[in-house]
């Protein structure tokens, strides 16, 4: 913390204020704001809590941040605040890594089971009161490639392994003997490895290197029976290429929780494809998650006030928290 007076904290939250802020308000001057008032709230503020983690308004108001030394975002992904002026500054950026790991892993296991057991069709037939026997798939022994080896990817790997699936990872560097993935392939070799997997799960952070990672060439490299799951960022995928791959039977299905444009426009063709499962960016949102996000920030806020090292410090050049930090 700078100086001995109560710090000034700007909180970008829109109409929904974060819960359980009383203990923070007792030791800081807190300015709650929406996007329109963000510039005014930033003037003279020492820190910024981006509670509205989907907002991209920080870049446009950053010119007013004359004293900000620390920014915390209430999500694992930091791309909404990775604009050049912040990235190139000496302002410390932290995130909420760890809050959503297990919840997102449960979602991924759930949609894999939904595909294998044809649950969407069962619900449809039930509504029509139609008795139609089918055979389903096993998930045990199926091969899964998790693209993104951070904490969420690791939680996914552990849960899918516990369900009997064979899981590998894909990260910046290839390595063997990983405690969660066993084998980790290098991202540069994505197209070489995609043919060997039944499910591909995208959970990589959004960076210049990963934007549009899943385009026509990636979907063409997958086997025709493969399913694609995206719980990372919508911009990891070229949506038009995914739609074409699904329509042409190039891949068997997709479960999508994130999209290039959110909310997903009602005229988007993904809504009408029978082999697609859509959820509205909720794979990690368990009951009580908002309180947990504030708890993570509050612990870091206390550390910041007392001069202790902050948790979840983002390497702004990489765009995520390096392993071990």
Write structural notes for this entry.
Keywords: NAD, Oxidoreductase. Residues 17-314 form the D-isomer specific 2-hydroxyacid dehydrogenase catalytic domain. It holds the Pfam family 2-Hacid_dh. Belongs to the D-isomer specific 2-hydroxyacid dehydrogenase family. Residues 110-283 form the D-isomer specific 2-hydroxyacid dehydrogenase NAD-binding domain. There is one protein chain. The longest helix has 18 residues, at 289-306. β6, α7 and β7 form a beta-alpha-beta unit. By secondary structure, this protein is an alpha/beta fold. The chain has helices at residues 22-25, 38-42, 58-61, 84-87, 101-116, 119-127, 151-162, 190-193, 216-221, 239-247, 289-306; strands at 8-12, 29-33, 47-50, 70-73, 92-94, 143-147, 166-171, 175-178, 182-186, 199-202, 227-230, 253-256, 276-278. Helices cover 28% and strands 17% of the residues. It folds into 2 domains: 8-99 and 287-306, NAD(P)-binding Rossmann-like Domain (Rossmann fold), CATH 3.40.50.720; 101-278, Rossmann fold. The protein contains 11 helices and 13 strands. The strands form 2 sheets. An 8-stranded mixed sheet has the order 8-9-7-6-10-11-12-13, covered by helices on one side. A 5-stranded parallel sheet has the order 2-1-3-4-5. α5 packs across α7.
What structural class do helix, strand and pairing data support?
A: alpha/beta
The global form is: globular
Number of helices: 11
Biggest sheet details? 8 strands, mixed
Helix content: 25-40%
Distance between the termini: 21 Å
Unreliable runs: none
What name does CATH use for the topology of the largest domain? Rossmann fold
Would you identify the CATH H-level superfamily of the largest domain?
Answer: NAD(P)-binding Rossmann-like Domain
Query: What share of residues are in beta strands?
Result: 15-25%
Would you count the extended β strands for me? 13
So, CATH architecture of the largest domain? 3-Layer(aba) Sandwich
Count of domains: 2
- Give Rg in angstroms: 21 Å
């Amino acid at each position: 913390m700078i100086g001995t007076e109560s710090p000034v904290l700007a909180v970008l939250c829109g109409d929904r204020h974060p819960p359980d802020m009383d203990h923070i308000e007792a030791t800081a001057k807190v300015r709650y704001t929406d996007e329109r008032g963000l510039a005014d709230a930033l003037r003279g503020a020492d820190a910024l809590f981006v509670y509205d983690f989907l907002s991209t308004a920080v870049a446009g108001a950053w010119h007013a941040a004359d004293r900000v030394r620390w920014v915390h975002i209430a999500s694992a992904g930091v791309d909404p605040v990775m604009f050049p002026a912040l990235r190139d500054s000496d302002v410390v950026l932290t995130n909420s890594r760890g809050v959503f790991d297990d919840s997102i892993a449960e979602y991924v296991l759930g949609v894999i089971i939904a595909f294998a057991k044809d649950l969407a069709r069962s619900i449809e037939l039930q509504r029509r009161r139609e008795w139609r026997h089918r055979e389903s798939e096993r998930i045990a022994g199926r091969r899964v490639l998790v693209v993104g080896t951070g904490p969420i990817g690791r939680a996914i790997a552990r849960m899918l392994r516990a369900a009997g699936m064979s899981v590998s990872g894909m990260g910046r560097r290839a390595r063997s003997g990983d405690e969660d993935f066993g084998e980790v392939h290098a991202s540069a070799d994505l197209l070489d490895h995609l043919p060997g997997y039944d499910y591909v799960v995208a959970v990589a952070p959004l960076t210049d290197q990963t934007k549009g990672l899943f385009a026509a060439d990636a979907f063409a490299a997958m086997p025709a029976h493969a399913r694609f799951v995206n719980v990372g960022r919508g911009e990891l995928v070229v949506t038009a290429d995914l739609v074409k791959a699904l329509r042409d039977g190039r891949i068997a299905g997709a479960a999508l929780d994130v999209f290039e444009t959110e909310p997903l426009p009602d005229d988007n063709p993904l809504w009408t494809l029978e082999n697609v499962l859509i959820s509205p960016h909720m794979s990690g949102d368990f009951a009580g998650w908002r309180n947990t996000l504030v708890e993570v920030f509050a612990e870091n806020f206390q550390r910041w006030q007392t001069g202790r090292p902050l948790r979840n410090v983002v390497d702004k050049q990489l765009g995520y928290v390096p392993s071990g930090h």
